[in-house]
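Hi W., the NAP complex you wanted:
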Amino acid sequence: MSPSGAVSLAVVGATGAVGQEMFSVLEQRRFPAGKVRAFASARSTGRTVAFNGTTLPVGELKADAFERDRFDIVLMSAGAKISREYAPRAVSAGAVVVDNSSAWRMDPGVPLVVPEVNAPDIRRHKGIIANPNCTAAILCVPLKPISDAFGLERIVVSTYQAVSGKGARAVAELEAQTRAWAAGQALPHNVWPYDMAFNVLAVDWKVAEDGTTEEEAKVMEETRKILGLPNLRISVTCVRVPVFRCHSESVNLQTRRKAAVAEVRRVLSGAPGVELLDDPRAGRFPRPKELAGSDPVYAGRIREDGSVENGLSLWVVGDQLRKGAALNAVQIAERLIQDGL
Ligand SMILES: NC(=O)c1ccc[n+]([C@@H]2O[C@H](COP(=O)([O-])OP(=O)(O)OC[C@H]3O[C@@H](n4cnc5c(N)ncnc54)[C@H](OP(=O)(O)O)[C@@H]3O)[C@@H](O)[C@H]2O)c1
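Structure:
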């Protein structure tokens, strides 16, 4: 950090869905950035990104990127392969890395952080802090206060995940498929071998031999790690839907102590990062299209589930490019600055 408190910052994956959002979150939160550099692959040479009224050239990420320039914080979102290779280089060169990929999340030596849930874990970092899977991050924000108030026995989650969770090319393909359908033309298939427009995909990730997808495994493992509940019983089904932004999650819980609906509403309405939208008969319930671009995790449709003891159901929506990625990473970076890195 400079004597003025300005932080030197690198954003890796600057042209991607998360990278683009990173710049808008940094700008909106008036992040105390001094020098800022944007990196992507050789494909992006010549491109620029807009930040704080200026345009930053996008540089190609090369082996010596963090030696030629010194950075306090590196925000990485260019996939696990790049993070595995470049995060240790950035750390050796003196930076702290906040990594959006899955590369380091389950490493016992790396904190996996949602600031509203486990901010103190940031202080344990040895150079890398992992940002969770977007679905897990959104899920943990309302789960934490419920867990603290009532205890958690078991969770069953079904997701309705937006296409921007798969990156900028997926957004472009849903747009192109929708336009083609409206024009009566054949739908293009560059990202998905199937139609994404007007469809629902119960498999959009690698499938393990036991039938679980990679995304489902991440959400289960990471939720246990973030909440600090290694034995939590959790079952997850991840589904891709033709929504541009914001993941929705149907969450069914069994709590240890009885959780009356009014009490759950009271607990959630005071919880950090949560906003209650729960009056379904008056049309107040979380909808991804209207909530895209906003910061909170929204909870609604809170109701008892009489099929099990202490059963509870709720509907959770969060913008996965913000709370599930860029916002969460910037919140971690802000805490690092508060703690003197
Ligand atoms: N999308 C989400 O909602 C979300 C949420 C949480 C976490 N994440 C994670 O964040 C990461 C990025 O996701 P995304 O959705 O932003 O993907 P994306 O839209 O496909 O963007 C990928 C970014 O990585 C860059 N990149 C690719 N190969 C590179 C290389 N060899 N060297 C340097 N940069 C390279 C790309 O640059 P070019 O433009 O030059 O190719 C682009 O800037 C992934 O690990 C993903 O799992 C995503």
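The first strand starts at residue 7 and ends at 12.

W.
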